[in-house]
Amino acid sequence: MKHTPNILFVMTDHQRADSIGMLQAGREVTPNLNKLASVSAFFARAYSTCPLCVPARTALATGKYPSRNGVVFNDWKGVTAGDHPTLHEILADAGYRVAHVGVHHIRVKPDLRDRVRFSLWVGNREYQRYLAENGIEDDKTETMKPFKKRVIEFADECPISMDYSNPRTGVWGHDARHFKDNFFAREAERFILEAGREPFALFVCFWAPHPPLRVPEPYFSMFPPDRLDLPPNVDMPAEGEPPLRRLGIAAQLAEGCSPEDWRRAWSAHLGLTNLADAAVGRLLKALESTNRTDDSVIIFTDDHGEHLGQHRMYQKMEMYEQAIRVPLIMKFPDSRAHRFETPVSHLDVMPTLLDYLQIEAPRGDGKSLMPRIASGDEPEDGFAFSMFCGNVALGDMRRAVVNRRFKYIHDPIDLPELYDLETDPLETRNLAEDEAHAGVMAELHE
Q1: Which of 307, 326, 208 is nearest to 250 (CA)?
Q2: Between residues 28 and 68, which one has the greater pLDDT?
Q3: Which of 49, 140, 301, 366 could lock 348 by a disulfide, CB 3.0 to 4.6 Å apart?
């Protein structure tokens, strides 16, 4: 390995791609990430392989689509997860001290912790111990009932009822320093500050802004609902929406929400996003204070997005931009800042990083973005793919392909969808039945 910079790889959960650079209530939603993006390769059209936590994170770690690595939904019991090498073990084999702080959600066999000798592992178990040591009771089932909604989903062709977080909001009733992501940020910060000369690869996976929308102060009050600018298609399905789309989990979770409910949901979600951004800022400051910023690779992304009422949907689990487009920032030593607009995939992250480090990448489904990062040039067009196969078992089966202008969504039991993202970025008009776009439909379907 020729280059041995330290690596800081940060992920959030449910963070919308449009949060980067967003202004709401006269305030930057992500000031630290905005600053990082301004000096990095910023991919404005990056896409998750799946709008669901476990498949998205496992695909990112293995460089393979969910359909190829075997992890296609969250409940992986019975799923044959293949023995695919992960980015973590590749870096460990190359001599890096690999550390993990935060949410896990990567499913491979053998388990990730059996494949890699981690220098540090801090997850939910350590957070629960911290709460107990500080006399803070974790949320009980009864406490969380108002923040849950029961929906019907199809699993292996059978209807089952499941509880998911709804858009209800509330204050998390403890000091913000005890909030999960602030605990994770302190642990990751300590690792950076105490690290020696041996190169490290630190993976930090924050929980925010994942629901439930229970937010500590001052973040709960940071973005007043009546001062927010909401997209015009909040609580508005697309014209020509396929008839079965209202049966999906995301649509069911949005049922019965008023305009005021959505404003409160946006307020809480933005507060959690700002909290996560502040946590990222702590890590960037730790790199700076130890003189590591200029010789570190910094990668930031998210597993998937969040509808927040757009298309009259909540959470993820659909193929619309709000659910599958993700922020992606990559900063390499000596590379120049550039904003890229051509679609790229989460699957491109592993080969890009390994290309820079001059480590041979395993055969995967992505491609290195280093040539365009180094030159600032990008192709006129590109494609990204995403899929959703159900949450806890095989159910909804949707696929999406997106190029620089269009998105095509295929559902084997429902009508297709086609959106012109150049003229209709909010995907409000389905063009699939428009004869003028038959050629585009045929091309993307292939």
Answers
A1: 307
A2: 28
A3: 366
Name the domain count of the chain: 1
Per-residue CA distances from 26 to 223, 224, 227, 262, 324 (Å): 9, 10, 9, 19, 27
State the pTM of this model: 0.95
Task: Indicate the helix (H) or strand (E) that contains 402.
Answer: strand 398-402
Phi and psi for 325 in degrees, rounded to 5? -85, 140
Give a yes or no: residue 39 inside a domain. Answer: yes
- Residues spanned by the domain of 330: 6-134+168-375
Q: Domain holding 323: CATH number?
A: 3.40.720.10
Residue 72 lies in a domain: yes
Q: For residue range 362-373, list pLDDT tens digits in order.
A: 999 999 999 999
Burial letters 389-398, b for 16+ CB under 10 A, else e:
bbbebebbeb
The answer to whether position 296 is within a domain reads yes
pLDDT digits (tens, 9 = 90+) for 295-311: 999 999 999 999 999 99
Closest CA to 8 of 201, 227, 291: 201
- For residue 1, pLDDT over 50 is answered with no
Among 425, 401, 383, CA closest to 232: 425
Q: Which of 218, 236, 224, 314 is nearest to 264 (CA)?
A: 224
| Residue 202 pLDDT grade (very low, low, confident, very high; cuts 50, 70, 90) | very high
| DSSP-assigned letter for residue 337 | P
